Fold this sequence. Notes:
By secondary structure, the chain is of the alpha+beta class. The protein folds into 2 domains: 68-184, Uridine Diphospho-n-acetylenolpyruvylglucosamine Reductase, domain 3; 186-390, Vanillyl-alcohol Oxidase, Chain A, domain 3 (3-Layer(aba) Sandwich). Helices cover 31% and strands 25% of the residues. It has 14 helices and 19 strands. The chain has helices spanning 23-35, 90-99, 115-120, 158-165, 196-204, 248-254, 257-268, 273-283, 293-297, 317-331, 373-385, 400-406, 410-420, 429-435, and strands at residues 3-4, 11-12, 16-18, 40-43, 58-61, 68-71, 80-85, 102-103, 137-143, 149-152, 173-183, 185-195, 215-220, 226-236, 287-292, 305-313, 339-344, 359-367, 389-390. The chain has an 8-stranded antiparallel sheet, sandwiched between helices. The protein starts with a strand and ends with a helix. Bound molecules: flavin-adenine dinucleotide. Flavin-adenine dinucleotide (FAD) binds at residues 6, 41-48, 52-53, 62, 86, 108-110, 113-114, 116-118, 120-121, 123-124, 168-169, 173-174, 301, 391, 393.
Amino acid sequence: MVWQNWARTASADPEVVERPGNDAEVAAVVRWAAARGKRVRAVGAGHSFTDCAATDGVLLSLDAINRVEHVGAAGADGSREVRVGAGIRLRRLCSELAARGLALENMGDIDRQSIAGAISTGTHGTGARLGGLATQVRALRLVTANGEIVETSPTRRPDLFELARLGLGVAGVLTAVTLRAVPAFELEAHEAPMPLGEVLESLLEPDGLVDSHDHVELYWWPHTDVAQTKVNDRRSSGAGPLHPVRRLIDDEVLSNGALALTTGLCSAVGALTPAVNNVAARALTERRYRAASHRVFTSPRRVRFREMEYALPRQAVVPVLEEIRSWLGRSGENVPFPIEVRFAAADDVWLSTAHRRETAYIAVHQTRWLPFARYFRAVEAMMAEHAGRPHWGKLHRLRADDLRALYPRFDDALTTRDAVDPGRVFGNTYTERVFGD
Length: 437
Ligand SMILES: Cc1cc2nc3c(=O)[nH]c(=O)nc-3n(C[C@H](O)[C@H](O)[C@H](O)COP(=O)(O)OP(=O)(O)OC[C@H]3O[C@@H](n4cnc5c(N)ncnc54)[C@H](O)[C@@H]3O)c2cc1C
């Protein structure tokens, strides 16, 4: 079986593919592989843009380990710890939580990933007061390189916990994830096109758009002066009438049918891109709606694309957007895909892209019909000037030495890895590049 990831940027031909149904079966496969000198990688939904889950050894799919195992008692704030099988997809997780009056505090923009895959690459949503999914993890169960089943948390083997909660699977195969779930809530969404200049000005103000709302996201169409702002604010469930009708047109223009059409047209006739982007940006209208949080956070993504995303110190977001804008003007690069901007609070997860700094994310995309290398390299050079950290699951070219300079706890992560997997049972080409061996 040839395995391919979502963006079709990576493929590998694993020697063996296993679909274990419980921890003991995972442990048996790991022991079997280690005894024969074969390497092991776990795969979730294969939704990364890099080859992080690829292997020519044993590929483990945890799709069958996907149940809610335990729901803890409610804390003073109504939150509960929920333990789930590591292969559960976010879509099912959200509906299981909703059935219990619970929700994830923050999410990215799709729900196809597995919880293990999502935390292992530092998947995040947007919200200047909130962290990525790994910050919501309270405990983990995993199978280590010697086939042991181990429980870890901030108080039980805390170093292992750090590497396991965001470490591309190099600590072991995650089999269960305990998350902090919050009482279910609704989001009131306000989406509106705005002149780019006005948006950038507001990003510079201390109490501007980003700090005065719970979740703020921007889409800027290259070759235009228009950005679509997406602002979501929390409301407790049942706070008023619900408007469940999502912005169908906006979903189509930003992510689906209409985007497929416009990017296809622009790939064929590059000279049309500025005009098409202008039409697309102006097709997005102002609208408000309210729905359960996971329905507002996520939407379907049917158009395949390539993506690179970097985390920057928040104050760098405007200068970098200006640099990208100026480069696009100078280079004449054909970019029919919007650029996405999101925000996160500083956190303490060792390998989190928001580790110890207030963060802004800039993501550049390119349709798979057009070359992406020159564009992504130019943007990557700008990110380097501002100590940008690449998303672990999206395209980038950094290596261990570059990453060491960006993460104060990088060597702690490597030391922990040496202790739990000295033989590199859980290594692959990607981990060799980003961790050095
Ligand atoms: C359309 C699209 C939209 C996206 N939106 C966002 C977004 O809004 N925010 C964001 O931050 N990212 C986003 N991403 C990136 C995506 O969230 C990450 O790449 C995520 O890792 C994918 O999860 P997965 O289950 O597909 O993991 P995979 O790609 O299958 O695996 C990712 C990593 O996790 C490891 N892994 C998987 N399962 C286990 C396990 N059980 N134990 C140990 N290691 C394991 C793999 O070995 C690999 O290293 C998006 C990607 C796509 C394609």
